[in-house]
Write a structure and sequence with these properties.
7 helices, 177 residues, alpha/beta, 4-stranded parallel β-sheet
């Protein structure tokens, strides 16, 4: 076994390295579990090249895929979407959600207080489960679990993900009426 393979198997303590992406116009909050190694390196959400998050969202809104972090932030602001993760810190092996232990949650309520957010979506089962376990109490907003855009969720095709994630566009369009 190579040194790299050995080190990938060791759980390490990790703190969430960047703040939520939030603008005052946000009406939707999408919660992930914890940023991948690639996202932590790039200092922004969903930066693993195989993660389908940006492809899915751009398809949902029928727009060009935002490729740079700046384009991604502009896309989110334009569509009134905030991003954050449920976990503030944890033990994790690489980017594996299944390895997460010793969770300290983010204070989701602090972001929601005084915000215009009216609906929460979780990106995957792990974020959904963690939100229900650590954050849900006292938050009286509708929450919807979406299938994970992670490359580890290979059983979902891009087309199937887009179909499921269209509830965000439907909600967004309903709010504009």
């Amino acid at each position: 076994m190579s040194e790299k393979s050995k080190s990938e198997k060791i759980a390490c303590y990790a703190e969430h390295p960047f703040p939520p992406f939030y603008k005052e116009n946000a009406t939707i909050l999408i919660l992930g579990s914890f940023p991948s190694v690639k996202s932590r390196e790039a200092d922004f959400y969903y930066q693993h090249p195989q993660n389908r998050f940006w492809k899915v969202l751009s398809s949902v809104f029928e727009q060009t895929n935002p490729n740079t972090v700046l384009e991604q932030k502009q896309f989110l602001e334009r569509h009134k979407i905030a991003l954050w993760d449920v976990i503030a810190s944890c033990e994790i092996i690489g980017s594996s959600d299944s390895s997460i232990k010793k969770v300290i949650p983010n204070d989701i309520q602090s972001l929601l207080d005084g915000s215009k957010v009216r609906k929460i979506y979780t990106n995957g089962n792990k974020a959904f489960d963690l939100y229900n376990r650590y954050c849900k109490q006292g938050i009286n907003l509708p929450m919807y679990r979406l299938p994970s855009t992670s490359p580890a969720n290979a059983r979902w095709t891009l087309e199937d993900l887009i179909k499921q994630w269209k509830v965000i566009r439907d909600y967004y369009q309903g709010r504009k009426k």
